[in-house]
């Protein structure tokens, strides 16, 4: 048995590593193959090499099935987190228009056109006959001022990708 392990270890590891493309996982899967080998009754096996590679293929298939389940679970978790955020985003979105109205007129107008009406910055510059760079910078400054207004009103806790996890309203500002 020990001779079998030493003679088949490198070829099996190479075979697995080529298919999973992660040497740490390949190492673990190779160990799993030899664990399975040690627990098996080899008396009925006629072609040991064929049997060993069949076991290896099955372990690789199980590996990918497990990965697929992990990905599905992560996707479900993400969808749940996103749907939970919908109510929070809706509540905070009710504050956007009143806050925009508190901004200086030139910032308020540009932010409303771009963020609320969905007009591109280039279209706004053409429509209002304002330099495109000016429109871009005023929208950025307007966003900063809007963030400052939100910070005065609410404490917003964000997740890893900027998603809103929760918020607490400091005052009755909106």
Would you write up a description of this structure?
The protein is mainly alpha-helical. The chain has two domains: 72 residues, Rna Polymerase Sigma Factor, Chain: A, CATH 1.10.1740; 67 residues, Arc Repressor Mutant, subunit A (Orthogonal Bundle). 76% of the residues lie in helices and 6% in strands. The chain has a two-stranded antiparallel sheet. A hairpin with a 5-residue loop joins strand 1 and strand 2. Helix 1 packs parallel to helix 3, helix 2 packs across helix 3 and helix 4 crosses helix 6. The longest helix has 55 residues. The chain is elongated, with a radius of gyration of 30 Å. The model has no long low-confidence stretch (mean pLDDT 79).
């Amino acid at each position: 048995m020990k001779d079998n392990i030493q003679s088949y270890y490198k070829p099996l590891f190479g075979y697995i590593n080529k298919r999973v493309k992660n040497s740490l996982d390949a190492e673990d899967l190779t160990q799993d193959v030899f664990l399975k080998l040690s627990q098996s009754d080899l008396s009925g096996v006629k072609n040991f090499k064929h049997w060993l590679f069949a076991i290896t293929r099955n372990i690789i298939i199980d590996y990918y099935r497990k990965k697929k389940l992990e990905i599905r679970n992560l996707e479900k978790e993400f969808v749940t987190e996103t749907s939970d955020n919908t109510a929070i985003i809706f509540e905070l979105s009710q504050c956007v228009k009143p806050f925009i109205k508190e901004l200086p007129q030139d910032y308020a107008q540009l932010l409303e056109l771009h963020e609320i009406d969905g007009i591109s910055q280039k279209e706004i510059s053409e429509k209002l006959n304002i330099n495109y760079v000016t429109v871009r910078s005023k929208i950025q400054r307007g966003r900063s001022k809007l963030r400052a207004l939100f910070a005065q009103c609410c404490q917003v806790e964000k997740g890893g990708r900027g998603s809103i996890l929760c918020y607490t309203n400091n005052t009755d500002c909106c």
